[in-house]
Structures are given as structure tokens and as C-alpha cells.
Write a structure and sequence with these properties.
Length: 507
């Protein structure tokens, strides 16, 4: 056998040399699954190119046919290697193509290779005259050829390309460029090779365009892997993790416009990710607060409570490229915090504020009143006769009396006035913007409460009250003590007047 090289084989030989160089550069990374898949694609292309070169240069029809058959080792394994490369690139963990799945994908190619090498017996792939030496330009391809050698491999290539499209739409910059290269590396050779099979000339001479274009299109991919770390696992693996987060992730550019969101963020916004791109986040959420790096912000969206954390995205030189905002639903935590705070500041029996709440709000109101020319009235109320009620009718009846009196206090005064149970039978009122001498109005309202309580089945009820005013009568504890002293003075007056339940007021 002799081999004759012609100028028309130059593109194929150059493609073979380039592919061998790319495969050699991958050998030191053979331990990485992604690089192994890429090396498998390159080796498949090498087999295809070598078979094509040898079948075109060798003399003798039988040798040309046999070398031509070796091309199919590459033709049929490249699509499986390509699909494995894509799946490992998109979903590196866990292994997306375990051995059983790989063997299942190779089942059809292995069966096809067996049929190819035994075609002289059954003629299921190509049909030609029995006993003659087949020539590549004269055989007739059967329907099984088109199904097993054209349709199935191209279906795997298209499947891989479809898998890449969502990732291509989701990423930007170098990551989008590398996916674009991968798509071109499979689409261009597939279209060219289909045209070649249909009799449309693509390359000069009889060279097969598929492996040549495959090799050329993979050159920038291999260069990017070696020089710039393209096809790295981290970005897409990171994106896969982000997509699975229960938190909403918004990536903003330097002008505050959305450039990327995860699925949870799109759900929160009520729009698809594509419709959110380029929109300012404040135009979507009108209640969006000001968020600064290192200082979590609380954001209330309807009944939901979200915690926002912002971090600046920078390039390798430290220049700000944009911001990433992570929104975490903390509604349950906020509700539990509110419940604990409520329990810490609320009297369980009456639902009024307790002594702690009274002291806190007294300090806040006196500070506010001090900044404005306003008067604040502090009223201390003692519910008379509670001990006698507990002794004669039981503590349940006494608790009902306390609860009813607390509810009556809330309903008798303005919404901005606040009532508290300080403990036992002692209550308090904070009455904002109260005029000096307003204790007469307080006395009248408490008298009405007492009458209503008596009509509701609590004939024993009575009340004594003392009132003091901020700022001219004191502040803080001194103000409360003055109101308390006045309440006891008038309790004594009440007791001296006889058993008839009345309300005494003083200021």
C-alpha cells in the first residue's frame, strides 16, 4: 500500500495537527472530569481526521474503504463526549454522567460500529454489489445509516446545545463568550457535515468538513481554558447554588439597574428574569429602603418582613462594577420577635401595656413633649375593692373584673392616649397634649367607667385616681410618685366618705 498526499488535504492535515496539539495540552489535566470530557471530544476528532486522511491518501479501493470505516470511531463517539462535556460544565456536582448513564449513551454508537464492520454480510448500513469492493462515492446509504449515523449523533449534539441556551441567557461577560464558543463549535460543523452528506461541496477536494471545522472551532475554547481559565466550574456551579437558595438575589449594575436575578427574586418581583433586566429595583418595589454595605436593612412588603444585605461587586483592580443584594424572608423571625416583645411589654390578663412598657413610653413621651410646647398628664389609678371581690367570689371573678376594667379604660380615652396595668389593682394612663387642670375630664370618664362596670355585674367596683403634669410638676419617677401620692390621698378621702363607690380625682 502506498500513500499519496495532495494539496487538497492541507486543511485536514492542519486540523489534525492542531487537534493533536490541543489534546496534548489537556493531558496534564486528565484528573479533572471536565477536562477529560474535552479530551474525549478532541480524541474523537483525531480519529475522524486520521481516518479521513488515510482513506484519501492510500492506494487501493479496499484499503480506502477500511480506513474510511475507522472514521466512525470518532463520528459516533464525539456526540457522547460533547454531551458529557456540556453536562459537566453546567452541573459539575454531583457527577451528571455516571458510568451507567455513559454506557447507555454509548449503546447505540457501539451497536452501530458493529453493524458498520459487518456490513459486507447484511448490507443494513450501505448497499452495494455483493462480491465487489465498495467505493465511498458509489454506495447507497440506507435509512438505518441516516438514523444511526446522522440523526442519533446530531440529536445528542442538539440536546447539548439546548442545555447550554438557558445558561447562555443567564450569564454575562466571559462566561457568555465561552458558552457561545461551545455552541458554535458544535453547530457550525454539524451544518457543514450535513451539507456535505447531501452533496454540497464545503471544502476543496474530497475532504470531510465536519472534523476540520470541529477542530478549528475548538481552538479558541482550548486556548481560553489554558490562558484564561475558561470552562471553569466555579461560575456555573456558583450560579447553580444561587438558584437553589431560598433567598432572593438581585445583581445590580453601577447605575442600580437589575442585570441578573435568581428564581426566588423573580417570584418576589412577580416578573420573569428577562423582564427584570435593565429595570431599577426601586421602580419594582416602591417601598425598597436605602441599603448600605455592612448594615442590614429591614424591608416590609405587605405582611412579609425581609432582611436586605448588600455587597459591592468589584473587578480584579478593585473598581466597583455593581452590587449584589440578598433578600432573606425573616417574617417568622420578626413575628416571633414581636411576640416576645409583646409578652415583655404587655399584661397578659388585660392586654394593656405593663409597667415596663409604661416606663419606656413615659420616657419617650416626656422627651418628645420636652421638644414641643405640650403638656403630658400621668394618671395613676387604683381599683378599689379587688381584694374583697377575690375573697368573696374567687380569683376568677377578680380576674374578670380586672380584664373588664382594662377594656373599659381603652375605650374611654382617645386612641393616642395609652392605658397600662402596673400590677395588682394598679393602673396608669398617659394622656398626651393634656391641658393643665384636665383631671376633671379624667374624673368624669372614670366615673362613667365605674357606673358601667357596676351595671355589668361588678357592684363592688370603685376607683381612686391621682394626676400629675409634665413638665411643670416634675419628670420621670418624680412625676409618677406625685401622681401616686395624690391617688392615695384621695383613696383616703374616698374611704372616709363611706362605702358608696365613687371616683376621686386630684391634680
Amino acid at each position: 500500500m502506498t500513500y499519496i498526499l495532495t494539496p487538497t488535504l492541507l486543511p485536514t492535515l492542519l486540523a489534525l495537527l492542531v487537534t493533536l496539539l490541543m489534546a496534548g495540552s489537556m493531558l496534564h489535566r486528565i484528573g479533572q472530569p471536565l477536562q477529560r470530557a474535552f479530551l474525549a471530544v478532541l480524541l474523537g476528532i483525531c480519529l475522524w481526521l486520521m481516518g479521513d486522511v488515510l482513506s484519501l491518501t492510500v492506494s487501493g479501493a479496499r484499503a480506502q474503504w477500511n480506513w474510511g470505516l475507522t472514521q466512525f470511531l470518532g463520528i459516533l463517539t464525539i456526540p457522547v463526549a460533547w454531551l458529557t462535556l456540556v453536562l459537566r460544565h453546567l452541573r459539575p456536582v454531583p457527577e451528571p454522567v455516571p458510568l451507567p448513564r455513559l454506557l447507555a449513551l454509548l449503546t447505540v454508537p457501539l451497536l452501530t460500529l458493529a453493524l458498520i464492520w459487518t456490513n459486507d454480510v447484511h448490507h443494513l448500513i450501505w448497499q452495494y454489489s455483493s462480491g465487489s469492493v465498495p467505493a465511498w462515492g458509489e454506495v447507497r446509504r440506507t435509512i438505518l445509516y441516516w438514523m444511526l449515523i446522522v440523526v442519533y449523533p446530531n440529536a445528542l449534539l442538539i440536546w447539548g446545545a439546548v442545555q447550554l441556551l438557558p445558561a447562555w441567557r443567564a450569564v454575562r461577560g466571559n462566561e457568555r463568550h465561552q458558552i457561545t464558543l461551545l455552541l458554535l463549535a458544535v453547530l457550525v460543523p454539524s451544518v457543514a457535515n450535513t451539507a456535505y452528506l447531501l452533496g454540497i461541496p464545503v471544502l476543496p477536494g474530497r475532504a470531510t468538513p465536519g472534523p476540520v471545522l470541529f477542530a478549528l472551532c475548538l481552538v479558541p475554547v482550548a486556548w481560553g481554558m489554558l490562558r484564561y481559565g475558561l470552562l471553569r466550574v466555579t461560575p456555573l456551579a456558583h450560579r447553580q447554588v444561587v438558584e437553589q437558595l431560598a433567598d432572593a438575589v438581585f445583581v445590580l449594575d453601577a447605575q442600580g439597574r437589575i442585570i441578573e436575578v435568581n428564581e426566588r427574586a423573580a417570584e418576589l418581583a412577580g416578573r420573569s428574569a428577562s423582564l427584570l433586566q435593565g429595570v431599577r429595583i426601586g421602580d419594582i418595589f416602591h417601598s425598597w429602603p436605602q441599603v448600605t454595605e455592612g448594615h442590614p436593612a429591614e424591608w416590609r412588603l405587605g405582611r412579609e418582613v425581609w432582611e436586605l444585605r448588600l455587597s459591592t461587586v468589584r473587578d480584579e483592580r478593585g473598581s466597583a462594577l455593581g452590587q449584589a443584594v440578598v433578600a432573606r424572608d425573616v417574617t417568622a423571625r420578626a413575628q416571633e420577635h414581636d411576640r416576645v416583645q409583646r409578652l415583655a411589654n404587655e399584661d397578659v390578663l388585660t392586654g394593656l401595656g405593663n409597667r415596663r412598657a409604661f416606663e419606656t413610653e413615659l420616657a419617650r413621651e416626656t422627651a418628645r413633649t420636652h421638644r414641643h410646647p405640650l403638656t403630658l398628664a400621668v394618671a395613676i389609678i387604683d381599683l378599689d375593692g379587688l381584694k374583697a371581690v377575690n375573697d368573696r367570689q374567687g380569683h376568677a371573678y377578680g380576674d374578670a373584673l380586672l380584664s373588664a376594667f382594662g377594656s373599659a379604660l381603652l375605650g374611654a380615652f382617645r386612641p393616642e392616649d395609652r392605658a397600662y396595668r402596673l400590677g395588682g389593682d394598679e393602673f396608669a394612663l398617659l394622656i398626651t397634649q393634656s391641658a393643665s387642670g384636665g383631671e376633671i375630664a379624667i374624673h368624669e370618664r372614670l366615673a362613667r367607667i365605674v357606673r358601667d362596670m357596676q351595671a355589668q355585674g361588678f357592684p363592688e367596683v370603685g376607683a381612686s385616681v391621682g394626676v400629675a403634669y409634665f413638665p411643670h410638676e416634675g419628670t420621670g419617677d418624680a412625676l409618677v410618685q406625685l401622681a401616686d401620692e395624690r391617688m392615695y390621698v384621695h383613696k383616703a378621702q374616698h374611704q372616709a366618705m363611706g362605702p358608696e363607690p365613687v371616683v376621686h380625682a386630684s391634680g
